[in-house]
Amino acid sequence: MNVWLLILGVGVGSLLLRASVLVLLRDRNWPQSVTASLGLVPAAVLAALIAPELLYAPSTGAFDPVGPRLAAGLLAAMVAWKTRDVLWTLVTGLGLLVAFQALGWR
Amino acid sequence: MTALSALSSRLPPAFWRGVRAFVPLIPGVLPFGMVAGIAAVQAGFTPLQSIAFSLIGYAGSAQLIASQLFASHTPTLLIVLATLIVNLRFAMYSASIQPLFGGVPPARRWPLAYGLTDQSYAVVLGRPATETNAVAYYAGAAMPMWLTWQMGTAVGALLGARIPASWPLDFAVPLSFIALLAPVLRSRPQMFAAVVSALVAVAAHDLPFRLNLILGALCGIAAGLFAQRRLSRKL
């Protein structure tokens, strides 16, 4: 029962957020500071999603600034920057992480 | 087959350009969806509930967070709140792409809004300057994104716990975000926003409900706005 409530809550809430400006508030004019900040949203949100994943160990949740995930992630970021290719980024990052872990770096 | 070719000729060419622009993201989305399906089942969802979560919620990282919190017996209302905070970015994306949708009636805007994700947003934002039909291009990216996500979570939910825990498949999630980040870092204020956001999100890691994500993003956006103002004053 709780699971279905959870599913419904997340579903309705997410749809309303997605539809907020696109459907529900479409005729509103937005102040310039709001439109200026929109170009910054993806960079800020993605960086906040990525950084903690690279700096905290997933098993223990402890701060881990010299872990294999940071090294693999930074090298994958260089590949992403150079190639702009998702597949190469994934192959590099996952490949390096598996290799580092096989070498005993955890 | 004739139905399929009739359909393909009815859809505008811009739709297929959107599809083509999305295709390179599939290898990032598929494992991400599988991870979300596996996480839900391991948190105690049935495979059916896990698939329904993807269909109704369609909420990427929020599905992963909801599974994590559900497994640690967080009250339902708090889980929903946490996922909506993480999904606040959809409201920002919604505002960002609204100018492209002039003339599209509300009945058609609902399904287009449902298809709004990090990926479909990034693809339509990165469309070539020559693209004349941004709405069809967006729909072309959103449709295979939806299919890929649903297939990924369904496979993950059905495989469930059969995948060895030692495979670091979860690392595919931040890696696909890294691949999405590189093309949106085009100006100095954007880079500044990303750096500040990353630092704050790491420093505030121990906040509950992944509030560090929201706090980091807000600080990053504020820092980026500040940088924009400084730059425009110098010019």
Automatic annotation (TrEMBL), chain A:
The chain crosses the membrane at residues 6-25, 37-57, 86-105. This is Branched-subunit amino acid transport protein. It comes from Deinococcus humi. Keywords: Membrane, Transmembrane, Transmembrane helix. It comes from the Bacteria. Pfam families: AzlD (PF05437). InterPro entries: Brnchd-chn_aa_trnsp_AzlD.
From TrEMBL, chain B:
The chain crosses the membrane at residues 21-45, 77-101, 135-159, 171-189, 209-227. It is found in: Cell membrane. Keywords: Cell membrane, Membrane, Transmembrane, Transmembrane helix, Transport. Signal peptide: none annotated. Its main location: membrane. It comes from the Bacteria. It is a multi-pass membrane protein. InterPro entries: Brnchd-chn_aa_trnsp_permease (IPR011606). GO terms for cellular component: plasma membrane. GO terms for biological process: L-valine transmembrane transport. PANTHER family: INNER MEMBRANE PROTEIN YGAZ. Belongs to the AzlC family. This is 4-azaleucine resistance transporter AzlC. It comes from Deinococcus humi.
